[in-house]
Specification:
The structure is a single chain. This protein is mainly alpha-helical and 457 residues long. The protein has two domains: 12-229, no CATH class; 280-445, no CATH class. It is built from 15 helices and no strands. The longest helix has 74 residues, at 231-304. Residues 444-457 have low confidence and may be disordered.
């Protein structure tokens, strides 16, 4: 197939590593957008960080919804490539991009229109609320760039060319780093300046993707960006991507409730601690997500091609890789929480509160990496429902647990313990679930065998 790399032959370790590194780096770049904003805005004070932190939950929710087409692209296009069906791969690519545009316009419009009542959920001081509303409305108009870029990234990952999204996203990050201080301090725009810098950077990433696909790559032999939706392809994409998007979106709703509770218990410092701590925790999350996405793309091709022995070996290899890094992050957060938090918010009261959050959250980092790694296995074989069930149930357990711990007199720290405990539970349950069904689900389905056989004749 033109413009793709086969993952069904060659060294598993090298392929996983070469695929995971650019994906992981791309994830870090996407995380760095928020951290860069947070670091510069942190110089304005903890109240300014609380303002963009309240919007951060909504941008996270937006990113979660965009996973529908990112994961939809990675699995549907990846499995089509593995089955050597280039026509289906092109159709899936076009459908994912079209669906991404439709969803992003609808969702961005809702956030823009209802920005005021949404932000007031947090019950922050009025001047913080007003800044957050303005920030959200600017960010919401740039959501089509985020959604379409996510779909493009998924298509490249499925084709085994994860370096391209890395280079493109890296360009956007460099631009964001340059524009942030210019807009925030140079033009005196404050928190709005961070929003404008992010908007311009995301638009640039989108335009580079368009240029790359149209004038440099003949990916999948070329395909139209937009198409009339057909039930066959749309249904498959929704089946693959909707559980993942629903999982992460519901997770964001849980965090919105926890942010409200943190604000009630600790004021703007409580909200700032939770939102900024979550961004810092993304160091672990994005690392494991990079390996998980690589594992998903690798398994999608090998599972469709009937190379089950490569699927098993890739799973073991990825567990070792993520386990080592998860242990490192656990030690970093537990013993150096204050120092890490102070990099982003140098205000003493803020980094002391943040250090407590990171210490408590640090106990769960290894299990978080376990959960996300196992998600990659399930996604790769096309079974996206089990991770969704486990994550949704356990994430919603955080609400009653947080309420219970707060009423027990633990205050805002009770919320941190609820988050840490449920993360540990998710990792253990998902690993156990896969071990139980492994023998059955890794027997190549007869329908897939027929697909492979017909493509070879």
């Amino acid at each position: 197939m033109q413009g793709i790399k086969s993952l069904t032959q060659g060294s598993i370790n090298r392929q996983l590593f070469n695929l995971a590194m650019p994906i992981m780096a791309t994830s870090f770049i996407q995380m760095a957008y928020s951290l860069t904003d947070m670091a510069w805005v942190g110089r304005l004070g903890s109240e300014a960080v609380a303002a963009i932190g309240s919007v951060g939950i909504l941008t996270w929710m937006s990113g979660s919804i965009s996973l529908l087409n990112k994961v939809g692209s990675e699995v549907s296009v990846g499995q089509s490539i593995g089955a050597q069906n280039q026509e289906d791969a092109r159709h899936f690519a076009s459908h994912n991009i079209t669906i991404a545009l439709i969803i992003s316009i609808c969702w961005g419009g809702l956030l823009f229109i209802f920005a005021d009542p949404i932000i007031r959920i947090y019950e922050l001081d009025e001047h913080i609320t007003i800044n957050a509303i303005k920030y959200l409305r600017i960010i919401s108009t740039g959501l089509p760039f985020i959604f379409l870029s996510a779909a493009f990234t998924g298509i490249y990952n499925a084709a085994g060319r994860s370096k391209i999204p890395f280079y493109i996203s890296g360009t956007g990050l460099i631009l964001n780093i340059i524009l942030d201080p210019l807009f925030i301090f140079g033009f005196g725009l404050g928190t709005n300046g961070a929003a404008y810098a992010t908007w311009i950077s995301e638009a640039t990433v989108f335009l580079i993707f368009i240029y790359q696909l149209r004038y440099h790559d003949a990916l999948l032999g070329g395909f139209p960006f937009f198409t009339q939706l057909k039930k066959k392809y749309t249904g498959r994409i929704l089946k693959l991507g909707l559980p993942v998007a629903t999982l992460n979106t519901l997770f964001a709703f849980v965090n919105m409730f926890l942010c409200r509770t943190a604000s009630e218990q600790g004021g703007h410092l409580g909200l700032m601690t939770f939102t900024t701590g979550g961004q810092i925790e993304a160091i672990t999350w994005n690392t494991s997500q990079g390996f998980s996405t690589a594992l998903s793309a690798f398994i999608a091709q090998n599972y469709a091609a009937g190379r089950i022995e490569r699927v098993i070996k890739a799973w073991y290899t990825t567990l070792w890789m993520t386990g080592i890094f998860g242990t490192f992050c656990t030690l970093l957060f537990i013993f150096c929480g204050n120092e890490v938090f102070s990099i982003f918010v140098p205000e003493r009261a803020a980094y002391e509160a943040g250090g407590i959050f990171l210490r408590i959250d640090g106990y769960s980092q290894l299990f978080m990496m376990l959960e996300i790694t196992m998600q990659g296995v399930f996604y790769g074989i096309g079974r996206t429902v089990p991770p969704a069930i486990i994550s949704i149930v356990c994430n919603y357990m955080r609400i009653p647990l947080a309420i219970l711990f707060v009423r027990m007199g633990m205050g805002v720290e009770g919320i941190w313990w609820a988050v840490s405990a449920t993360t540990v539970i998710k990792g253990l349950i998902l690993l156990g679930w896969f071990i139980i069904i492994k023998q059955k689900c890794l027997n190549l389905p007869s329908v897939m065998q027929n697909q492979v056989s017909s493509s070879k004749t």
